[in-house]
Inverse folding.
């Protein structure tokens, strides 16, 4: 069974499995965070249902976006969502295992790489009962180092990587980015609400960049009023409401 879900007053429609993987807040925040520079070739590593390519295409008409996704059923849904959004001339969804990146693309092809990779190491936490959700949340078919190695290979010198990840694994992320030659340059921590610990981090790095990182103001998801269940003004802006 599938659903067709809408974003931005139905400007974006996504076909998703009713009981499989369903996108959350992470790609929406990442699409808003990333720096875009006019006409550019973009790669999404592990594009899932295609939400991030569709969000980026909405932000800039100059982008040409390629999404790599390993799970064939997700690829098929993402392709239908792209057709539904009438952006097939700007977005290509490729069934591919990113661990074979050297055979998939020439080095230095892309100006921007984005990714919302699995957050949890295999063997940690509760594994989702279905394959789609398990692969999206746990490193069952490639971990952080695989994603970053693919990003570094695909990026041209001076190109950017934007990634959303668990705050508790921030040190691991920053060290691993530097190790593959992508220097972290911008960082923003996402908190559920004021006074709560950060849960997610948004990080943008530059391949071959010099050391030095800007720590941006915190992003709060929920406001203090009404029991803390309403989105903040910034989240409403991000969602276009």
């Amino acid at each position: 069974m599938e659903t067709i879900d809408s974003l931005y007053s139905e400007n974006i429609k996504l076909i998703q499995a009713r009981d499989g993987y369903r996108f959350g807040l992470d790609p929406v925040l990442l699409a808003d965070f990333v720096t875009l520079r006019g006409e550019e070739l973009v790669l999404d590593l592990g594009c899932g249902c295609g939400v991030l390519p569709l969000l980026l295409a909405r932000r800039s008409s100059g982008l040409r976006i390629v999404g790599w996704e390993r799970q064939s059923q997700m690829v098929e849904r993402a392709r239908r969502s792209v057709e539904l959004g009438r952006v097939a001339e700007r977005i290509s969804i490729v069934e591919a295992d990113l661990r074979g990146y050297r055979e998939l693309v020439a080095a230095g092809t892309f100006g921007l790489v984005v990714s919302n990779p699995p957050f949890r190491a295999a063997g940690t936490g509760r594994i989702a009962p279905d394959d789609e959700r398990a692969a999206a949340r746990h490193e069952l078919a490639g971990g952080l180092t695989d994603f970053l190695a693919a990003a570094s290979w695909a990026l041209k010198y001076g190109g950017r990587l934007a990634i959303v990840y668990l705050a508790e694994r921030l040190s691991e992320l920053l060290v691993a980015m530097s190790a593959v030659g992508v220097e972290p340059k911008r960082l923003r921590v996402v908190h559920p609400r004021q006074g709560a610990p950060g849960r997610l981090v948004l990080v943008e790095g530059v391949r071959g960049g010099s050391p030095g990182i800007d720590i941006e103001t915190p992003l709060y998801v929920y406001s203090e009023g009404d029991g803390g269940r309403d989105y903040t003004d910034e989240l409403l802006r991000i969602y276009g409401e």
Summary: The helical segments are 25-33, 51-59, 72-84, 101-104, 131-137, 144-154, 170-179, 233-238.
